[in-house]
Amino acid sequence: MELDSSNSSTSYASIRDISNFQSEEEILFSMHSIFRIGDIKQIKHQLWQVNLTLTIDHDPQLKYLTDFIRGEINVPNGWHRLALLMSKMGKFEKALEILSIFLQTTSVDGLGYCLRSQIIADIGRMKLYLGNSCDALVDLQKALEINQKSLPSDHPYLALNYSSIALAHYSTGDYGMALPFYEKALEIHRKSLPLDHSNLALNYNNIALVHHATGNYAMASSFYKKALEIYRKFLPSDHPNLALNYSNIAAAHYSTGDYTTALSYLEKTLEIHRKSLPSDHPNLALNYNNIGQLYQSMGNNEMALSYLEKALEIYRKSLPSDHSNLAVNYNNIGQLYQSMGNYTMALSYLEKALEIHRKSLPSDHPDLATNYNNIALAHYFTGNYAMALSFYEKALEIYQKSLPSDHPNLAVNYNNIAAAHCSTGNYTMALSFYEKALEIYRKSLPSDHPNLAVNYNNIGGLYQLMGNYTMALPYLEKALEIHRKSLPSDHPDLALNYNNIGGLYQLMGNNAIALSYFEKALEIMQRVLSNNHPWLPLTCSNMALTLQELGRYDEAVGYAIQASEIARSSLGPDHENTKAYENQLRELQQLMSLL
């Protein structure tokens, strides 16, 4: 620990002589002390040495950030200031408590109409941050009514009212109502503020979020960049609003499949949040959650789970048990377990998410549809196709009400319904849904987006099931081409591509080429998937069948045994696929006994 008393007025004292541990050089610092972390060295096992340096009184970065945040909560009343500070720290319940007491214990005359409307609006905002959008909207509209009577139509307070009401509508999934309120706020800010004012940047950011939610990623990206341009001019480099903007730009890149750029922006966000926010702030959790999702999309499930669990730990400490952010986190962890082949764990998390969303959201909210979709997928992978289809149809009903007809989420839903019909043998119905999905993807996504690859893969697989191998191959090759461009070389989806093309060549009687694709698939799967992942038995079974056709029976039996054992472990002994792999093994062993 280093300190220079000539450059710091921070109070401290040695307590070695009065400590219970006199062998230790203990120093007591005043509570407001701030240190910079220098080197961190591991001494042994879990013991580390951390070098700290006490900040000086005129530390330029710290002074700039402190003065800036102090300016953001610069309201005349001390209780109001304290509530806003609590809000900045993510302590929304405490902020709400302070504001409510302040409003109840101060007369209308004592507050004045202007301050009263601010307090009511801030109460609404705290309720909004705590996930209570409907109650929040009542307070925010009450504040707006007061301000509309007493203020000019272009007053900045009105713009803040409009923005808050827009956020409440956005939180309930009503994007059509959110956008015009955000645009009213923007109109006022453009008239009354300098072009590089922070509130204009916040406006651009909010409008971008609505465009993002409705699938208009190009428009979203342009508004995010307008906001970033302003923020960079006047914000300290470690200000939370800059972090929020980086996070939103990352989301836009993520939605277009540009994972590398998305990760770079999320890491910038995390760096700022770690410097400027308490360790249990919900925004840190949101950051961990986003990075976790991104790693999952990149095929790195181990990293994904570690970040998602960090997020969950913070959310459980800082949010009510029915907050929508907790539901989102449960959903993401459930999806991750699903991609890892652990469907029991997946369903437990997905059902927790659904329980929260049913309590806290309108019955036609898009997030509920996402829940239904995810639960359906878990049922689909365990072979319960009827249950899967019922959940997919619930999701579709919501999406058709709340989203534009060319939104990518609708395409995902069509894809999923098609897969369920395909598994029940209804190929004509499946093809019609796959083609609906493809039509949307071609309109709304770049030509090398991973979701397009999934769609091509599905259509190719369906044509294969229908016996039309000539139509199947070009679709499967398009999928492989996109995945080679957009994914890491050991991504599980690439393995699935190789497996599917191998299967098609096998059906066409070209076993040598089929084997080369299966080997590529198995190499990736064994490297990145768990030992009992359900994709492994499928590939092992394909290898066994191909080796049998090539007359390499000993090798074929070895792979058939692997397929049977892994399937029993991952799918259970009664699953139809497990029984199929066991039949394949018996037939191979009978064939071997005749040779």
UniProtKB/TrEMBL annotation:
Main location: cytoplasm
Sequence intervals crossing the membrane: none
Keyword field contains Secreted: no
Pfam families attached to this UniProt entry: TPR_10 (PF13374), TPR_12 (PF13424)
Ranges: TPR repeats: 159-192, 243-276, 285-318, 327-360, 369-402, 411-444, 453-486, 495-528
GO terms for cellular component: kinesin complex; microtubule
InterPro entries per the UniProt record, alphabetical: TPR-like_helical_dom_sf (IPR011990), TPR_rpt (IPR019734)
Cellular compartment(s): Cytoplasm, Cytoskeleton
Keywords from the UniProt entry: Cytoplasm, Cytoskeleton, Microtubule, Motor protein, Repeat, TPR repeat
Highest taxon listed in the record's lineage: Eukaryota
Subunit: Oligomeric complex composed of two heavy chains and two light chains.
Cross-referenced PANTHER family: NEPHROCYSTIN-3, TETRATRICOPEPTIDE REPEAT PROTEIN (AFU_ORTHOLOGUE AFUA_6G03870)
Family: Belongs to the kinesin light chain family.
UniProt function note: Kinesin is a microtubule-associated force-producing protein that play a role in organelle transport.
Protein name: Kinesin light chain
